[in-house]
Amino acid sequence: MSPPFIVDGDVSAANSPSPPLIGRLASVYSEVQANRIDQPLPFPSVLGKLFDIVDGPPSSAAGNPAEIAKLFPNLFGQPSAMLVPSDSGAVKVDKKLKIGVVLSGGQAPGGHNVISGLFDYLQDHAKGSTLYGFKGGPAGIMKCKYVELTAQFIYPYRNQGGFDMICSGRDKIETPEQFKQAEETAQKLDLDGLVVIGGDDSNTNACLLAENFRSKNLKTRVIGCPKTIDGDLKCKEVPTSFGFDTACKIYAEMIGNVMVDARSTGKYYHFVRLMGRAASHITLECALQTHPNITIIGEEVAAKKLTLKNVTDYIVDVVIKRSKLGYNYGVILIPEGLIDFIPEVQQLIAELNEILAHDIIDEDGIWKRKLTTQSHHLFDFFPPAIQEQLLLERDPHGNVQVAKIETEKMLIQMVETELEKRKQEGAYNDEFKGQSHFFGYEGRCGLPTNFDSTYCYALGYTAGALLQSGKTGLISSVGNLAAPVEDWTAGGTALTSLMDVERRHGKFKPVIKKAMVELDGAPFKKFSLFRDQWAVENRYISPGPIQFVGPASNVLNHTLLLELGAQA
Amino acid sequence: MSPPFIVDGDVSAANSPSPPLIGRLASVYSEVQANRIDQPLPFPSVLGKLFDIVDGPPSSAAGNPAEIAKLFPNLFGQPSAMLVPSDSGAVKVDKKLKIGVVLSGGQAPGGHNVISGLFDYLQDHAKGSTLYGFKGGPAGIMKCKYVELTAQFIYPYRNQGGFDMICSGRDKIETPEQFKQAEETAQKLDLDGLVVIGGDDSNTNACLLAENFRSKNLKTRVIGCPKTIDGDLKCKEVPTSFGFDTACKIYAEMIGNVMVDARSTGKYYHFVRLMGRAASHITLECALQTHPNITIIGEEVAAKKLTLKNVTDYIVDVVIKRSKLGYNYGVILIPEGLIDFIPEVQQLIAELNEILAHDIIDEDGIWKRKLTTQSHHLFDFFPPAIQEQLLLERDPHGNVQVAKIETEKMLIQMVETELEKRKQEGAYNDEFKGQSHFFGYEGRCGLPTNFDSTYCYALGYTAGALLQSGKTGLISSVGNLAAPVEDWTAGGTALTSLMDVERRHGKFKPVIKKAMVELDGAPFKKFSLFRDQWAVENRYISPGPIQFVGPASNVLNHTLLLELGAQA
């Protein structure tokens, strides 16, 4: 198929009098982008043959199985499904299907390949099927806003980053009215199935949708796919969420560059905040890839009940130790959600939300008397700019917007202040200069690595197989990822088996628990074994830019390899 | 030679009881880094053979030749030198040389390869020569702090980013005492030559040093090499400074990622500030690589005498136009030095520096009465956070630190305010959300592209040839860069020919004029031809990560190609 786009800056060709093209069809492509489109991907051999689907034993839940069973009477206990090669190919290949697909939540590199894989499955095994892409996330389902995805439409998005093929959204299908709207769409489009590509919340939502459709005796089945750069949606059967690999490698490239700069310049401490609010997987992975002098892992801060003063002192102590060794520079990684992990900050913010809702913030600070002593001290410990942010930046519900706080700048100021104190005490006599960085949006929409491209394609292809064989309420599961791609396994895992309940507003709500950094897991253990060495020696690694061919083009991320036991 | 480093995270091997290794020798390398070390580079064929050096006609100066002639009585008028193949090889190959090399100023990808090229020249053509690396920039020359660069020492830095082999510094050799120190070092080490790798200031300094050595009848010759990611050191014979290619490609990768994110999310305007304070070459090159909706070029702002209000209105008008087309997102590039280019801001800062030196800034703002009316208005036009920065951030001389102003955040606030006004007037009814980015340090120390690796190696190799043939006061010049590498030319250009004078403290000072973005040059002309289209259509290009092998690994930057007439 000839590419329906213009390659590498040939802008003049775009001056055509024809009506404006939309999205990628109107795009000019860089040479790397253009080359990626036609890049053939390796393929798990089980997906290339005729296969049967074999069910495992009945499943339970991650917690509170009795409650999960009540919430999902039709789905609870479903077995996992595994694709196995079969000469007969028991899965029917003749019936045409009508399938919908939706991208839900934040961007992650590889989403387009899940859709390509699903599309190709339908082409290969259910010729004549129709694939609808719901536009703008779950709202597209509710409003029945969709586009029919054809070979030509999908082509320019193959192996490309972003979610712009059909865009995404953060709406949820929650209320009875919203479920009704989803049912209407399913019936109007006569959907045999729906693939929901999203994170923990979106997959919980997918399972509720599957339960709802089944309870209403609709034929529409629902399959989830694990997406999030944060890496916090995973379990034994779903070893990783897609996008994590690419995002970490993009951030690690920049961290590596900054490290070489720090060592060359010899006079800056670079404080790098990394995306990932709920869990610190990205920060940990970047640390394993680059060996920074200091890495703060939110889960450890929470487990050890550290205060902000503890964190500041830890950094300051390393800075002083390094100063004595003659190093007046360094690199420090901080997870975006750091202050969410600090119990005393949580407490302060809760108190502030309460006070700000009812009281006036007087300039003389009389309002502060309403804070508990501990929170009062903590508030005063914050640099003025952060105090201001705490008081002024509010979300539409009037709550303090923790996400807006530039933690890296805050820590620089706190470290400065503490070092000044130590200087007075004669414990330090260098000049400390901090440089702040936040790497966030840069990593969400990069060109997917070979791993993410291949993994996503397999996830989408598998989702098609699960739908065709009548499965619902499963999450597409591609495993054995440390092995060569041809030996990867493919199947589906009961979404209810990942669930626990949380009590909200007096009711049990099902949730897929976020996978946090495990302090006794292999990645954290490796990090904690070496961090003291990395602190004082400079064992920086600069991973360099992601390569698509040649050396390093097929290196997996450390977290995945360590969790699979494939790296010591 | 076997690599004296540990590859890719094999940290345990570093737990040896031996004394700590220093710098790269103690480093663990990523797979990409390790692979780059042994990467063979293409080589201009003229450097691979025996050659003669042929002089051109006498040179003049970029401006005020009479004054330059007075300032450089020994060097003025020197011809350019060109390497030409020769069967006899008139350049002597037997005499051992003692050569010093220094890195001066900010990091730029490729510096290590200039040193490798120089070292290899000496190995190939003056076996037994000694190469000294002065540590920490020109201060290393003055203090005679150096390291002897051996094959083993240099090896792990080949094709690697950063300046950490010998580090850099920003000192200048200016006073008679400092020149004396440099002479003493040259004599102590019995230097036949010195290679100064730096930007416009450093090359001016190199020429003064060459003049001084010659006037004192020292044998030490001085050759410069054109380094700066900012791209503002170039002329006909020196088509580009090294590092510009790599830095722009690193920034463009991230801009491309942010563009795809903007289009996928559909709700943010990303304001990206890019390094490059004096000239806007980086911003222009990134625009040509990625096609942002809005690009501000400082030189144009200055030429058209635009005010900050003009710039704000330009952005606001595009935002409104896009809103009407249904696009509530976009990407905007801003050069780091933007506000330096705005005459009214220059004026305000001059007045502020004067006032802050003598007056107290009272809270009631009575001090503001000392401002001219125009400056007073401008000050009030700034968002409060910027007002604070203008008053509080001072350099050691008490001057306002313009470089510390986060222009991208300032513009977001100004655009927000203006859009709010337009909303009141009924001209706009979208919700504007800005996201700010600053890409700086991330680009200075990346792994050099194939172009920068090759170009730098040739610059260093050529510098060796110029020194050996007795040349001084030249800048190493490698040309014909749009042709295949084997056809590149090599030679040297009289540094005095790049110079003009500036009047400072009643004296003429020689300066190599910074090469600014030419508004009638091919790169700006191409940009201005397309920017209106890029503003309203979304013709984003995502260049993707730098590739070292395979597709796009040998693409040159647009600025260079356009300036060489090699791209329409």
UniProtKB/TrEMBL annotation, chains A, B:
Pathway(s) where this gene product acts: Carbohydrate degradation; glycolysis; D-glyceraldehyde 3-phosphate and glycerone phosphate from D-glucose: step 3/4
Protein's UniProt keywords contain Kinase: yes
Binding site for Mg(2+): 200
A GO term for molecular function: diphosphate-fructose-6-phosphate 1-phosphotransferase activity
Subcellular location: Cytoplasm
Keywords: Allosteric enzyme, Cytoplasm, Glycolysis, Kinase, Magnesium, Metal-binding, Transferase
InterPro entries, per database record: ATP_PFK, PfpB_PPi_PFK, Phosphofructokinase_dom, PKF_sf
Single GO BP term: response to glucose
Top-level lineage group: Eukaryota
EC class name: transferase
Main location, first listed in the record: cytoplasm
Record site: Important for catalytic activity and substrate specificity: 201
EC number(s) reported in the record: 2.7.1.90
Residues reported to bind diphosphate: 106
Ribonucleoprotein is among the record's keywords: no
Annotated ranges, domain Phosphofructokinase: 98-463
NCBIfam families: PFKA_PPi, PRK07085.1
Family the entry assigns: Belongs to the phosphofructokinase type A (PFKA) family. PPi-dependent PFK group II subfamily. Clade 'Long' sub-subfamily.
Record-given protein name: Pyrophosphate--fructose 6-phosphate 1-phosphotransferase subunit beta
Gene that specifies this protein: LOC111012611
